[in-house]
Design brief:
- Helix content is 23%, strand content 35%.
- It has four helices and 19 strands.
- The strands form five sheets. A six-stranded antiparallel beta sheet has the order 8-7-17-16-13-14, with helices on one face.
- A hairpin with a 2-residue loop joins strand 7 and strand 8.
- It is globular.
- The two termini are 37 Å apart.
- This is DUF3662 and FHA domain-containing protein.
- Keywords: Phosphoprotein.
- InterPro entries: Cell_Proc_Reg/RNA_Proc, FHA_dom, FhaA_N, FhaA_N_sf, SMAD_FHA_dom_sf.
């Protein structure tokens, strides 16, 4: 129970740190994460000894007033919720049938401060979305090179005197990421060690001056996936591609 308690505290710190200052009353973002976690744990279906399937599509219903406040945060809140759901599933060794999709919905039957989560298992393709988290802001990575630095010509601009104008670049080829120092004055650290060029693994921490940049890869639902709405039978098995299909 201790490990679970620590993980829940981690979820609360992560969401509160990014969003909670926006809210003085009504539904709090951390209450949404708790509701999503309960839904995942409740709906977990044991398929085999080492495979537990959990929902990957979530409709989070709340009062219109709460929905307006949550929606004001834009896509950053959804990205953060997807990331936290992904981490919770990994910590419990749960598996998804496809990419994670979370939708916030206004429900006039709910009072302010209340939240309800509906979920389902939907087989589908995963869109691996790489992002950089910098000082509470999230920057999606496009295919190619993303330059980080203090200068206005950088794709991601740092307000940090310890950063060079063009400090580092992150290369994303659609599947993998690499970090390359661009001859910076003060150097770059990756997970606490000096680096010139290296592969970026998910949740790697890039340190530039006083700035801390986290590279994440979110397992989101592919927007072009036509499988949305198709439920997955818990009796199905996982195929070689990592998704779930009919049991033989």
């Amino acid at each position: 129970m201790g490990l679970l308690d620590n993980f829940e505290k981690g979820l609360e710190r992560a969401v509160n740190g990014a969003f909670a200052k926006t809210f003085r009353s009504g539904l709090q973002p951390v209450e949404i994460t708790a509701a999503l976690k309960r839904e995942i744990d409740t709906k977990a279906a044991v398929v085999s000894r080492d495979r537990v399937l959990v929902p990957n599509r979530f409709a989070v219903r709340m009062s219109p007033a709460d929905h307006e406040r949550m929606s004001s945060l834009g896509p950053a809140l959804i990205d953060e919720l997807v990331d936290l759901v992904q981490k919770h599933a990994a910590s419990q060794r749960f598996q998804f049938a496809g990419g994670i999709r979370i939708e916030l919905q206004a429900d006039t039957s709910l009072s302010e401060g209340m939240v309800q989560v509906d979920s389902q298992n939907v087989k589908g393709r995963v869109a691996w979305t790489p992002v950089l988290d910098v000082d509470g802001r999230r920057y999606p990575l496009l295919k190619g090179r993303t330059v980080i630095g203090r200068g206005s010509e950088a794709d991601v601009t740092l307000d940090d005197a310890g950063a060079s104008r063009r400090h580092v670049e992150v290369q994303w080829d659609g599947q993998r990421a690499r970090l390359r120092d661009l001859g910076s004055t003060n150097g770059t650290q990756l997970n606490g060690a000096p680096v010139k060029e290296a592969v970026l693994e998910p949740d790697s921490v890039i340190s530039i001056g006083r700035s801390r940049i986290v590279f994440r890869v979110l397992a989101q639902a592919d927007p072009s996936d036509t499988a949305v709405g198709r439920r997955v039978d818990p009796g199905q098995r996982r195929d070689a591609g990592g998704f779930w299909g009919p049991a033989e």
